[in-house]
Write a structure and sequence with these properties.
Number of domains: 3
Radius of gyration: 27 Å
CATH class of the largest domain: Mainly Alpha
Largest sheet: 4 strands, antiparallel
CATH architecture of the largest domain: Alpha Horseshoe
Strand order of the largest sheet: 1-2-3-4
CATH superfamily of the largest domain: Tetratricopeptide repeat domain
Helix content: 55-70%
Strand content: 5-15%
Distance between the termini: 49 Å
């Protein structure tokens, strides 16, 4: 009797779990397409195979392969999406379903299970005082990766729905910028029009260099408290608009908005930090070394104006480390820890500094300290895993040598993949151009492209294998 009741209880629990799963599957707050890089590579491979089969004299197989490349694979890419239901991030589509059925891999991760959220920006088009950025966000946790790229309204909806729920310590600097300042283009245009900023074409030809000056106010010219509060509020609104313009790539308009805000509150540490990031973006877009040095100087000034704001100091340290100024970044991180000893970002930053200097013992120490002060379970596990990995490197010379060989092979495989891709493209061009002059050149081009493609595929498989850290061998 007891066994019967236990079986019925387990069946009830299983049915309730299935019902929750069905409810979660039907709920969708935001959905974005998976980054299509892998699908594009497979589509290009099938197109190349179709051309090779066409040279062999057959007609059915080339058409079937070409239809797969241009119809089936794009449909699979469009159906492969990352869905957020308010609690879980799930990858859905035919390919993830097949992978789950064959390998038993469940592409699902809850928000508290996130370990890191990283965003990279690629500049695609530069026109006047504006650039077009393509953002690529990657969520890591429990050995899973979710990668999606910007390119439409769905990405902005996903960022606005998901990133505010992620703990601050898990977001890198660009992800934080997108969380706070990514808005719809139409809304941004309305704000610019309301703020009466000059157009980008006018601002692109204007001088962007201006100095941070603190005005000497006479006693009789001191504004009232109400007027000062209004000016301060307007400056903060202008700072937000400037950051929204910076994230959108409208750098010339962002510089003008920062200029107006800095004229009112030139000593504000957060404002100077945001302005330094704008200078960094302008220097990168225009390849201007002078602007880059000004960005470094602005970051240094921001670290002075930050006072004991540990969160701001940690962000300044991350940006300083991006510039390659390791010693100054280390000082800023220690300043952040003096202000708040439980600042996790500063601990991770010091671990990165120690790793660049080759001090494994310090890397282990800072990661273990981070695991002790972190408030999120996933961050604690991540810090402990990093500390254990570097402790093993520090204690086991054989494992260290194995990992160094793995990293060297990974670098060689990456360079080989880039070279093989270039040779493949060159071989295809030679084959197409040679067909108009001499069939011999065409045959040489197809042979060269085929051999390079095989090398490219082999290097791609090697990269996937070598990217995973080796597990240590257990002692007998």
């Amino acid at each position: 009797m007891n066994d019967t009741k236990q079986i019925e209880a387990l069946q009830s629990l299983a049915e309730a779990a299935k019902q929750r799963q069905r409810t979660r599957s039907s709920r969708r707050i935001a959905s974005v397409r998976v980054s299509p890089g892998a699908y594009l590579a497979v589509s290009s491979l099938f197109t190349f195979l179709s051309a090779l089969l066409l040279r062999s004299g057959t007609n059915a197989w080339p058409l079937l392969t070409l239809a797969t490349a241009w119809l089936v694979i794009p449909m699979l890419a469009a159906a492969d999406r990352i869905v957020f239901d308010g609690e879980w991030v799930t990858r859905r589509g035919p390919i993830p379903s097949i992978a789950q059925f064959v390998f038993g891999r469940n592409w699902r991760l809850s928000v508290p299970e996130f370990e890191t959220v990283e965003t990279s920006a690629v500049r695609t088009i530069r026109r006047g005082g504006s650039v077009r950025y393509r953002y690529r966000s990657q969520i890591n946790g429990k050995g899973l990766q979710f990668i999606f790229a910007s390119g439409g309204k769905s990405y902005r909806k996903m960022v606005r729905a998901l990133f505010p729920l992620v703990h601050e310590d898990k977001l890198d600097t660009r992800s934080r910028d997108l969380r706070d300042y990514l808005v719809e283009p139409n809304s941004l245009d309305d704000k610019v029009k309301h703020s009466q900023l000059a157009s980008a074409s006018v601002l692109a030809g204007a001088k962007t260099a201006f100095k941070l000056r603190v005005k000497n106010v006479e006693k009789g010219d001191t504004p009232s408290d109400a007027a000062a509060a209004v000016r301060f509020e307007r400056a903060n609104l202008m700072r937000r608009l400037a950051n929204e313009l910076r994230v959108a790539g409208r750098l010339a308009e962002a510089a003008e908005a920062f200029r107006r805000a800095l004229n009112v509150i030139p000593r504000e540490g957060w404002l100077i930090y945001d302005f330094a990031r704008l200078l960094r973006s302008q220097a990168s877009a225009n390849s201007d070394a002078r602007l880059l040095s000004r960005a470094r100087a602005a970051l240094h000034l921001a670290s002075i104006r930050a006072g004991r704001d540990a969160n701001l100091l940690a962000l300044i340290g991350e940006s300083t480390l991006e510039f390659g100024d390791v010693k100054r970044a280390q000082r800023v991180f220690y300043k952040a820890l003096n202000a708040d000893p439980r600042n996790v970002k500063a601990r991770f930053g010091l671990a990165d500094v120690a790793l660049r200097e080759g001090k494994l013992a310090h890397v282990i120490h800072h990661h273990r300290d981070a695991s002790m002060v972190a408030s999120e379970k996933s961050l604690i596990m991540f810090a402990r895993r990093e500390a254990d990995y570097y402790a093993l490197l520090n204690d086991d010379d054989e494992y260290l040598a194995t990992e160094l060989r793995r990293i060297n092979c990974l670098q060689h495989a990456s360079r080989l993949r880039r070279l093989a891709g270039t040779v493949t493209n060159a071989g295809i061009l030679l084959a197409l151009a040679g067909s108009y002059y001499d069939p011999t050149f065409s045959g040489m081009g197809w042979s060269l492209a085929s051999s390079a493609l095989v090398v490219w595929l082999a290097s791609l498989v090697a990269i996937r294998i070598l990217a995973t850290r080796r597990k240590p061998r257990l002692l007998e």
